[in-house]
Design a protein that fits this description.
- By secondary structure, the protein is of the alpha+beta class.
- The protein is about 45% helix and about 20% strand.
- Strands 1-2-5-4-3 form a 5-stranded mixed β-sheet.
- Strand 6 and strand 7 form a beta hairpin.
- The termini are far apart.
Amino acid sequence: MSTHTINLTTKSYFDQFIQTPLVRKFLDLIFDFDYAIVGGLGVAFWVKERKPTPGELDILVDEEQINDLLELLEKHHYTIEGWKGLEITNVAVRKEDFRFDILLAQDDWLKEELFFAITVPNRKIKVLHPKGIIKMKLLALREKDMRDIELLESFIKNAQSHAKINYQICPKA
């Protein structure tokens, strides 16, 4: 028996979600690609009280890697359900009851956001910076996107004020 036991109730909603077996297998499979978690799950990474809902796994992938990624997913028995051209082109993918969207970074600003994605080695994930998620959510402007934008803006504001406090208490050189 392992001496490292984890109480799931102390884990964030994000951590519980990414440890769901189908989600974890998917994230492990795609880790070597240039991708980042975005959307509601991306918000849940930054804002601990944001609870992701089933089907809320959206990833952003460089358009130049999409064919290789889809080929790998098909090899691992994922079903490519179809393409949608909304504000950002995306493809829906499914395996068993697990469905998610792959959004393509086609525009330069999205490729730049993807370039600066944050890798979290202990969770073996990559996530978009909160300002990048806000920019993406501003394209959709649904009610849930507006709530997520407010959560992320509050997170950024709190992080900035905390950083200022820490800076002010440092002795002058």
